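Per your request, structure below.
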């Protein structure tokens, strides 16, 4: 029996004694990995007797699962903590205790500073120690304030309990599955290598077991997650080294899995096997998120992306010759230190050459502790604003062109939610989904 089966949360755990069962409210910021992590935390807490609630007012435990990627994302947490302070005070006058925790990337980056700045916080837990949440809560109930941000020696994934079948079904027909976590690339603008730690790949057996459980509970589309998901590698059952392409083929064999996706990829880790998976694997959706950040080689170098604009364009050509109908999306940063008008024009040129179906674009935000924040030649805010507007206008144009090109085409569809009263998260309709 594998670790996940052993730790399965009983269906009854979350509803032991109706009225008095403790409740947890988790608010999720940031990327898909945080969405996945929030679910795994909910699973760990269900095993500890906490039922999940979507109403903060009835929560005995409030967790903010935070993001540190840009200044705005990180600052949101403190304004939310201000509101929670009022709530905690109001509930205390009714004689009810509310525990407050900060998890995620702000927890990892700021640690005990959070408690200093926001005394309402009882616990701070970084992404590598979520399996220790029940133990942390026991210490908090004993009167301690706990900051748990060490990188655990034990494998958190082995120790996190799997959700019950009923819980998975409740979450819908699409699911995330983290296969890789952390980053060794150290782009000079980015906090992720510091908040998520160095790259780890989960073993094949663990991933397959989790995907099988999802499929058995009715999930039809699985999105594999990793900060550098295509750097995933592991030992296959035959003892050979597998890359993400091979893993996708293995997961596609699981009965019930109709669609696979993965995100986020780094251009340097797109190998032939993965590109071929886009050509040969029907289950792999014709979509790829492949961030490039900028179109100027000078800026790409300063960002430590370790590829040139033409490397990226050649890669896109190889991917498109394997899968001509692939929809590409990307991430862009405008106003990285030293970016001139000419550098920015090169970003626009790259966008025109590639053609994106969708994209995310951001103004550069200097992050404490990253090399970018220390660089001279920071770009003024008004210049960043103007560049962002121009870039977004072009991206929106491309997105509309993509949508228009879809008109009149017949495609298989995955029904994610029932309309009407059932709403989001309702059980999938019976019968074939695709
Ligand atoms: N691992 C992914 C990206 C994770 S962060 C990758 O390598 O592509 C998601 C996006 O946020 C990045 O692609 C980048 O476009 C943006 N981003 C990261 N740090 C930023 C910063 N300091 N300022 C503005 N945008 C940033
Ligand atoms: Fe950040 Fe770069 Fe790592 Fe992506 S590859 S997580 S942008 S450091
Ligand atoms: Fe944000 Fe951490 Fe994800 S910084 S983008 S929540 S990895």
């Amino acid at each position: 029996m594998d670790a996940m089966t052993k730790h399965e949360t009983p269906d009854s755990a979350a509803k032991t004694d109706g009225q008095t069962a403790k409740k947890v409210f988790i608010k999720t910021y940031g990327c898909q990995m945080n969405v996945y992590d929030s679910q795994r935390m909910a699973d760990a807490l269900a095993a500890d007797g906490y039922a999940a609630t979507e109403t903060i007012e009835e929560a005995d435990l409030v967790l903010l699962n935070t993001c540190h990627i840009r200044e705005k994302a990180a600052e949101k947490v403190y304004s939310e903590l201000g509101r929670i302070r009022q709530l905690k005070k109001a509930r205390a006058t009714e004689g009810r205790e509310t525990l407050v925790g900060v998890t995620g990337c702000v927890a990892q980056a700021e640690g005990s500073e959070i408690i200093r700045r926001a005394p309402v916080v009882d616990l701070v837990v970084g992404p590598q120690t979520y399996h220790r949440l029940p133990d942390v809560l026991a210490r908090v109930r004993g009167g301690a304030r706990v900051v748990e941000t060490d990188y655990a020696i034990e494998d958190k994934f082995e120790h996190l309990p799997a959700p019950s079948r009923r819980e998975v079904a409740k979450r819908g027909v699409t699911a995330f599955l983290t296969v890789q976590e952390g980053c060794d690339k150290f782009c000079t603008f980015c906090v992720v290598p510091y908040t998520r730690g160095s790259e780890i790949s989960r073993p094949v057996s663990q991933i397959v077991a989790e995907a099988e459980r999802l499929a058995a509970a009715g999930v039809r589309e699985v999105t594999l997650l990793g900060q550098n998901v295509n750097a995933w590698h592991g030992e296959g059952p035959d003892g050979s080294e597998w890359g993400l392409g091979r893993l996708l083929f293995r997961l596609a064999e699981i009965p019930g899995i109709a669609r696979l996706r993965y995100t986020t990829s780094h251009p340097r880790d797109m190998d032939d096997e993965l590109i071929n998976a886009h050509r040969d694997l029907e289950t792999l959706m014709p979509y790829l998120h492949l961030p490039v950040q900028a179109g100027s080689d000078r800026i790409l170098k300063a960002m430590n992306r370790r590829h040139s604009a033409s490397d990226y364009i050649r890669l896109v050509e190889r991917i498109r010759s394997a899968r001509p109908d692939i929809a590409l999306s990307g991430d862009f940063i405008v106003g990285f230190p030293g970016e001139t008008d000419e550098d920015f024009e090169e970003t626009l040129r790259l966008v025109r050459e590639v053609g994106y179906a969708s994209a995310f674009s951001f103004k550069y935000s200097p992050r404490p502790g990253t090399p970018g924040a220390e660089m001279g030649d920071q770009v003024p805010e008004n210049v960043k604003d103007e560049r962002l507007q121009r870039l977004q206008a072009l991206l929106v144009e491309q997105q509309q062109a993509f949508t228009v090109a879809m008109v009149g085409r017949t495609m298989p569809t995955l029904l994610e939610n029932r309309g009407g009263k059932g709403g989001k998260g309702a059980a999938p309709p019976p019968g074939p989904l695709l």
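The first helix runs from residue 3 to 6.

Regards,
D.
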